[in-house]
Amino acid sequence: xxxxxxxxxxxxxxxxxxxxxxxxxxxxxxxxxxxxxxxxxxxxxxxxxxxxxxxxxxxxxxxxxxxxxxxxxxxxxxxxxxxxxxxxxxxxxxxxxxxxxxxxxxxxxxxxxxxxxxxxxxxxxxxxxxxxxxxxxxxxxxxxxxxxxxxxxxxxxxxxxxxxxxxxxxxxxxxxxxxxxxxxxxxxxxxxxxxxxxxxxxxxxxxxxxxxxxxxxxxxxxxxxxxxxxxxxxxxxxxxxxxxx
Length: 245
What we know:
alpha/beta, Rossmann fold, 7 helices
């Protein structure tokens, strides 16, 4: 399916907030430093999920060769570029023009051909993607059900979707919102705890859209290990999604 959905999922104030961070997005010590720490953890999960779903060789360097990937809420391309290096034909979508401009500039400097689009994914009519990813995005959208419908519309038959998002728990409010923003680890106004979504809520949204969520894996933090994959879902979690049989 590639028909555009009618509901607008973009919150203009969210697009403005993240657009202001665009120029600093690729600075590992800048305002997006936490994303730079998070990205390798997510990529480890994504690579394992790709190999398991598509049957690719875990030792291969381009498991997505010949496949199309869509990253929704791509920011300045922090995930799009590794997906391109894994062999995919990548499309990145973001609500902020500043992010798309920064993403295009960085990809050009990296010698990567990535198709970046600015807009609401539900309005762009995108479809036929073997892999659809959306990392730390659903908690920022205006209509979660419409957003899931738009992601589903972009997924090719037999495709794989991967989503990550903060969990709505007391610990996430203390650490991700009050702690991280107060300490300057995350820009103020980035997180709105009431918009966080629990694994059960995400499962139900996906189920209503004809999608099946795999067992989620937590992204936890400790002094000794930093950010790492874990069975602890309290802060943040990542999960595979496929169409129901």
